[in-house]
Structures are given as structure tokens and as C-alpha cells.
Amino acid sequence: MDQRKIGQFIQARRKEKGLTQNDLASLFNITDRAVSKWERGLSLPDASIMIRLSEVLGVSVNELLSGERMEKETDYRKSAEENLLKLKRKEEEANKYLLKLEIVIGSLSTISALAIIFTAAFLAPGTMLMFFLVLLALLIFAAGVYSALKIESDAGYYECRYCHHRYVPDFSSVLMAPHMGRSRLMKCPSCGKKSWQKKVL
Questions:
Q1: Alpha-carbon distance 110 to 115, whole Å?
Q2: Distance CA 10, CA 4 (A)
Q3: What is the DSSP letter of 59?
Q4: For residue 123, what pLDDT is reported?
Q5: Is 195 helix (H, G, I), strand (E, B) or coil?
Q6: Is the separation of the CB atoms in 130 and 124 below 8 Å?
Q7: How buried is 186 (Cβ within 10 angstroms: 0-12 exposed, 13-18 middle, 19+ buried)?
């Protein structure tokens, strides 16, 4: 997916519609700097506004993601398939990165909390300082666990062993579910059966 080409296409369509960067930004409650980043090929519009943006610019989502007008139906279909595959790959890469980040956050918060507790026990046993250091360690650990679980609940999907339905569970389901590695014992929202559901990207 050529971000620079998409950016130039957005800019050309925006100008064609007689809109400034600020006009376009105000339609989506974003800054004109975000629109400028799109047009310079530094970032892509969020998926949540892609459909509305294509409507405002008078193009299809496929044309927007291709960075060009599509004339023939065969070109359109081929380009749509390529864009879907690229988006899928991009989503998988982002989810892999997030799951690695989850391990880093979990490890760092655990190591930091343990280091603070051992330091407190060694330097200030039985004092108020020890109490505050242990409290700080617990807060760091809790924040790390919360962040790691939030990432795990949002990145990728869980797949039911029975009906193979893929879904993103809410945070409380992930928090309360027993787990082994990246599998969690949860109830499938589709078939209603409880099983060890594996994390899939």
C-alpha cells in the first residue's frame, strides 16, 4: 500500500471538492495536521473514518486505498482483493507487535515491583517508608497487569473450539477467565459453549 500515492490522491480529490485541509479536518473532528500527514504520505486515515472520507471525496474506499480512480470492473475487483490482503497483513503485523509489547510491559512491571519490594525490605524493614514502597510496587504491578490484559483483549481474536467463531471479548471476560499461555477458558458468544479458546491473529 503506497501511502504517498494515497496521500497525493486525497489531496487532489480534496482540492477538486474545493475543501481546505481545515475544512476536511473539521468534518471528522481531527486537526488539520492529521490531514496534512495523510497528504504527505506519513500516515493513513483511521479505518473508522475511511467510508465517510471516501463519500466526502466522491470516491470508493477501494479507490482511496489504491490512490487512483478505477475505470474497469476487472481492475476494480483485482485492486479490491489486493487492498483487503494488504489491510489484513497490516492488521496482523500490528497485533503481533501489540502482543510482544504485552510481554514487555508484563515483564517490566513485575521485575520493577519485585525490585522495589526487595529494596524496601532490605533498606527500611518495618518502617513507613517500607509500607509506601510496597504500595508503590503493587501499584506498578497492577498498572502493568491492566495494560497487558487490555492489549491481550484487544489484539487479534479468540476462536471457539466448537463453532470456530472468532470474536473480541470484553475486558472483564479476559480478566476473569482462567488461562494457559494465550488460551482462555471462556464462553463463546455465538454457540454459548465454554471451552479453551485460543488467541488467533
A1: 9
A2: 10
A3: S
A4: 83
A5: strand
A6: yes
A7: buried
Grid coordinates representing 175 are: 480478566
Look at residues 167, 199, 154 and name the one whose alpha carbon lies nearest to residue 180: 199
Long-range contacts of 181-188 (CB under 8 A, 24+ apart): 182/99, 182/152, 184/158, 186/158, 188/160, 188/162, 188/163
Residues of the chain with pLDDT below 70 are 1, 72-81, 85
- Supply the pTM of this predicted model: 0.53
What pLDDT shows up at residue 75?
62
Contact 199, 157 (CB under 8 A): yes
Q: Are 152 and 200 in contact (CB under 8 A)?
A: no
pLDDT score recorded for residue 72: 61
What span, in angstroms and rounded, lies between the C-alpha atoms of 191 and 162? 8
